[in-house]
Design goal:
402 residues; alpha+beta; 25% strand; 4-stranded mixed beta sheet; D-Amino Acid Oxidase, Chain A, domain 2; 3 domains; 11 helices; FAD/NAD(P)-binding domain
């Protein structure tokens, strides 16, 4: 077993791990930074499997970190893509209503966006028809001009290449094994560090528990399945979303107009039974299965919102149910042209064990030797840079033993 030493040790090379490395390298330019990753390259989980939507920041409550950083992150990535000649589709988004109740919830979204100066416009059916003739709504819709789509892996890879140029070291196929005081073990290394930063996504809670943290939390995975429109015509040219259930941290099945000018439908939010349940029984883990079944069963009986969500989402394994939800959003699309995408995603959703509820915001925990970013779920990609700067300024700089 080889030995390595570093000032900052980052676990995970998704967008949060990469942007942490980027911001740290700009501030602590004379300190050593090492990133370890269990996969053979970067962004192999949520960061490389999401829809690529740059969110505008109007879904979230005013006291949340998500609300604070999403609009700023949206503007940052737009500039970043333009300056670095990366792909971006400024396609906008409409949130459409089906019922009177949806209409009232839509006004709540407008109010939330106003609190953080997110440009939003309430439009009527005539105005909606001029913007997107195929979108269907009940009386009013909410237009978000800031929303866009990008290629998340292209952005992550661009950051990665620049980090390599700045001598940031990456170790791939080196999963975290265990800790022992001021060092950890991976598959082939014993790594000493001054500060460890946990950005491990689906396994962030497990690593945090090794450091005596995240005692009140555990990850519950949710599987996101997409359908892709396979013909060359473009029946929609804007992102079309339903008004979501504001009691749950999911946005519902929607149309995404991708950066490559294709149409995707989804994702689902189906409760998964192990953390990397991407396809069939791949990556099956009996320990995870038993633990997650225990918590999901507990949630099912104690949390009405989760029980309702579980019933709704499991039905979406049936494509007819999936497509029926999409029919409520548009007037005319040949749904026979939608096929299941080969790439699904897993949301590393945090569960609060004290309240038996799904956590809606980013969570940060730390002690003297480590910092742990938990629940870095959507819109974590959009909000990544301002969120990470906040973490560095308010946690690492103020409490650093470097």
């Amino acid at each position: 077993m080889q030995t390595k030493y570093c000032d900052f040790l980052i676990i995970g090379s998704g967008i949060i791990g990469l942007t942490i490395a980027k911001v740290l390298s700009e501030i602590f330019y004379d300190h050593s930074i090492l990133v370890i990753e269990k996969e053979n390259t970067i962004a192999q989980h949520s960061s490389g499997r999401n829809s690529g939507v740059l969110h505008a920041g109007f879904y979230y409550t005013e006291d949340s970190l998500k609300a604070k950083f999403t609009r700023e992150g949206n503007l940052f990535w737009k500039t970043y893509c333009l300056e670095n000649h990366l792909k971006i589709n400024p396609c906008k988004k409409v949130v459409v209503c089906k019922t009177e109740e949806d209409l009232q919830q839509m006004y709540i979204l407008k109010k939330r966006g106003d609190m953080f100066s997110v440009p939003l416009q309430i439009i009527d059916e005539k105005e909606l028809k001029e913007i997107e003739p195929n979108a269907k709504t009940y009386q009013k819709a909410l237009l978000s001009p800031l929303t866009a789509t990008v290629d998340p892996f292209e952005i992550a890879n661009h950051i990665y290449k620049n980090l390599q140029k700045n001598n940031i070291e990456f170790l791939f196929k080196e999963p975290y094994r265990k800790r022992n005081k001021n060092f950890i073990y991976t598959k082939n290394y014993k790594i000493f560090f001054k500060k460890l930063i946990n950005c491990a996504g689906l396994y962030s809670d497990s690593i945090a528990k090794d450091f005596g943290l995240a005692k009140e939390y555990t990850i519950i995975p949710f599987k996101g399945i997409y359908l892709e429109y396979i013909t060359s015509d473009l029946p929609v040219r804007i992102n079309i979303y339903p008004v979501p259930n504001l009691r749950n941290p999911f946005l519902g099945v929607h149309f995404t107009y991708t950066v490559d000018q294709k149409i995707k439908l989804g994702p689902t939010a189906i409760p998964a039974f192990w953390r990397e349940q991407y396809s069939g029984f791949s990556n099956f883990n009996i320990k995870e299965f038993l633990q997650i079944i225990f918590y999901e069963t507990k949630l099912f009986f104690r949390n009405q919102n989760f029980r309702s969500l579980a019933f709704q989402e499991i039905k979406k394994y049936n494509h007819h149910v999936f497509l029926q939800l999409a029919r409520d959003l548009v007037y005319n699309i040949d749904f026979n042209n939608f096929k299941k995408s080969k790439k699904s995603g897993i949301r590393a959703q945090l569960l609060d064990l004290r309240t038996n509820s799904l956590v809606n915001d980013f969570i940060i925990e730390q002690n003297e030797e480590s910092l742990h970013i938990l629940n870095a779920v959507s819109p974590a990609f959009t909000a990544a840079i301002p969120f990470v700067k906040y973490v560095v300024q308010n946690y690492l700089l103020r409490n650093s033993n470097i």
